[in-house]
Specification:
Helix content: 10-25%
Number of strands: 9
Number of helices: 5
Number of domains: 1
CATH topology: Rossmann fold
Shape: globular
Distance between the termini: 16 Å
Order of helices and strands: EHEHEHEHEEEEEH
Length: about 200
């Protein structure tokens, strides 16, 4: 099993790679500046993880190109995609549009929040709520077409902010928080679900 981790110039990328490797998966980290979609197709990974990073998702060229190609079904091999933080925002940007991402009500850098969820996809088997680390000033404001809410802040019955989403039919999911952070509970279980369980 081969995982390709796209590094969007984030200081936490290596921590994310270590988490993936600790679960028994091969993980290759490549800078987004040193890769093309054509090279990704030659690598033929089983999984792609789009890392966090600075800036606006509109400027994450490679992540957006990968998502466009995934949307158009140009990858001729089985593939599932996880977007983390900026990667999650890229999914909303590509599948929805620029207006789907905006400023968060408050900046979060190293703060934890209670994350509520529906118990499906990569969050299957995790308690609701659990604590997760957030490092972001932008946020997905609304769900793109064909995406469902996966997790959120607020309360179990009253969602406030989108913290994760999943596509209704495609194996693609995004989370705003950082599963690799030591401040995040059950990050290992989440990543294990992404790597080895049905989405």
């Amino acid at each position: 099993m081969r995982t390709l981790l796209i590094d969007n110039n984030d200081s936490f990328t290596e921590n994310l790679a270590q988490l993936i490797r600790s679960l028994g998966a091969k993980c290759e980290v490549i800078s987004s500046a040193k890769l093309t979609v054509q090279k990704v197709k030659k690598i033929r990974p089983d999984h792609i993880v789009l890392s966090a990073g600075p800036g606006h998702p509109k400027d994450a060229r490679l992540s957006n190109e990968i998502l466009h190609n995934f949307q158009l079904s140009t990858f001729n091999f089985p593939l599932r995609i996880l977007g983390v933080c900026l990667g999650h925002q890229c999914i909303a940007h590509v599948f929805g549009g620029r207006s789907f991402v905006g400023h968060a009500p408050a900046i979060h850098h190293g703060k934890t929040s209670e994350i509520f969820h529906d118990g499906t996809s990569i969050l299957k088997g995790l308690p609701s709520p659990f604590l997760a680390a957030r490092y972001h000033s932008l946020i997905v404001k609304k769900l793109p077409k064909d995406f469902e809410l996966l997790c959120w802040t607020g309360s179990q019955k009253t969602p406030e902010l989108i913290m994760g989403m999943k596509h209704k039919t495609l194996p693609i999911v995004g989370v705003q928080f950082h599963p690799e952070s030591f401040l995040t509970e059950h990050g290992e279980r989440l990543m294990k679900n992404f790597l080895f369980k049905a989405l």
